[in-house]
Amino acid sequence: MGLKEWWKGLWSPEIEEDEPSFDDVEAETKKELEERYSDSMAEDLASALEDLDDDEETTPEVVEAVEVSPQIDIGDASADDLLEEEDLVSHYDVDVADEIDVEKADSHFISAQIEGDISISVEEE
Question: Using one digit for the tens of pLDDT, what is the confidence trace for 61-77?
C-alpha cells in the first residue's frame, strides 16, 4: 500500500454493507419456494388438463395369452427314466374340471361337524 492510498484512507470512510438477518433470508427463501411450487403446480395442472382435452384416445396394448405348463409330480422320476424311449404322456387335461353345479358345490359341508374351541353351534342362514 502506497502513501497515496494511506492518505486517501484517512478521509474516505469505509462503507460496510449490512449483512441480512436470518429472518430476512428465511422470508426471501420462503417467498421464492412458494413461487417455484406455484409455477410447478400450474404447469402440472395445465399438462393434466391438456391430456384430458386430447381428442386422440389411446387403446390399451393387447397382450397375447401364454400357455401355462401343467403341474406334474416328478417325485418318482430318476435319471435313468430319461434314457428310456417310450411315448410321452400328455398332461394338458390334468387341471380341467367337469362343469360344476354352483347350487350343489358345497353340499358336502352340510354333514360336517364342528370340532375344536367353538362353544356354540353354527346355524345355516
Answer: 888 888 776 666 667 77
Question: How open is the CA angle 46-50-55, to the nearest 5 degrees?
Answer: 170
| Residues 6 or more apart whose Cβ sits within 8 Å of residue 122 | 114
68 with 96: CB under 8 angstroms? no
**Looking up cell 497515496, which residue turns up?**
4
Which amino acid is present at 43?
A: E
Alpha-carbon distance values, 115 to 40, 109, 118, 119, 124 (Å): 63, 13, 7, 9, 17
| Backbone φ, ψ for residue 91 (5° rounding) | -110, 20
User: Per residue in 97-107, pLDDT tens?
Assistant: 777 787 888 88
